[in-house]
Amino acid sequence: DAGITQSPRYKITETGRQVTLMCHQTWSHSYMFWYRQDLGHGLRLIYYSAAADITDKGEVPDGYVVSRSKTENFPLTLESATRSQTSVYFCASSFGTGGTQPQHFGDGTRLSIL
Amino acid sequence: TQLLEQSPQFLSIQEGENLTVYCNSSSVFSSLQWYRQEPGEGPVLLVTVVTGGEVKKLKRLTFQFGDARKDSSLHITAAQTGDTGLYLCAGGGSTLGRLYFGRGTQLTVWP
After folding, report:
1. What pLDDT, on a 0 to 100 scale, did the predictor assign at position B46?
2. Which of residues 68-87 of B touch A (CB under 8 A)?
3. Of A13, A74, B15, B28, which one has the greatest count of Cβ atoms within 10 A?
4. How many Å separate Cα A72 from the centre of its chain?
5. How many whole angstroms separate alpha carbon B18 and alpha carbon A40?
């Protein structure tokens, strides 16, 4: 089915470990986004990408790495996880300019870092 | 610094009541989007407004974009329990590669 899929849905890991969250969309949308959602902070943009091999930082990029070798995939890696990165992570995509088109969100990955 | 301020942060009302949620900014946006998010899911777009003074209706929901394109409101008439959720506003523009989200209004409608 067409859509945007995040995996895993839930992940528990330990501080210092590397963890990668996956995001896959089937619409061939050019723009993709990674957000984290925390109580009291709302949705905060981590990284976004306008096309394959083009990425840009959002408000809270420290500690995260992204890549976009294919249009449909936009993985997010925490290189050395910290407790402050415990959060719910959402991936989104949009057609055309990221500032005007609606964003389509996945169902999120709930990440706990012990 | 939050570019878009939403108020109230929490709203708890009885079924059948009316309510208004506000989204304010000191910046001008060429488009303003409203999303609703339910527990365990990602936000889902409700509406996009692009013209200053524009009013859009979606059944019992009325969305308004301010004349100066700095603020927006969402009014719900005769709220139902199914309206419960987190309402998010997001501002964007053609020169921006991204949206700026407010922190959201958590609405709970009791039967």
Report:
1. 96
2. none
3. A74
4. 13
5. 25
Listed residue (A106, A111, A82) closest to A33, CA to CA: A106
* Single-letter amino acid, residue A18: Q
pLDDT at B30: 86
Given a contact cutoff of 8 angstroms between Cβ atoms, the answer to whether A14 and A81 are in contact is yes
- Rg, Å, chain A Cα set: 13
CB contact under 8 A, A42 and B102: yes
Could you tell me the sign of the dihedral formed by the alpha carbons of A114, B2, A109, B9, in that order? positive
Instruction: Please report residues of A whose CB lies closer than 8 A to that of B93.
Output: 99-100
Q: Does B48 touch chain A (CB under 8 A)?
A: yes
Q: For residue range B74-84, what is the model confidence (pLDDT) as tens digits?
A: 999 999 999 99
Residues A25/A95, Cβ–Cβ less than 8 Å: no
- How many helices (H) and strands (E) chain A has is answered by 0, 11
Instruction: Give the Cα separation of B90 and B98 in Å (integer).
Output: 10
Chain A residue whose CA is closest to B38: A107
Q: Which residue of B has its CA nearest to A88?
A: B40
- Residue for token pair 């942060």: B9
How high is the pLDDT of residue A1? 58
- Find the CB nearest B94 among A33, A56, A97: A97
B100: helix, strand or coil: strand
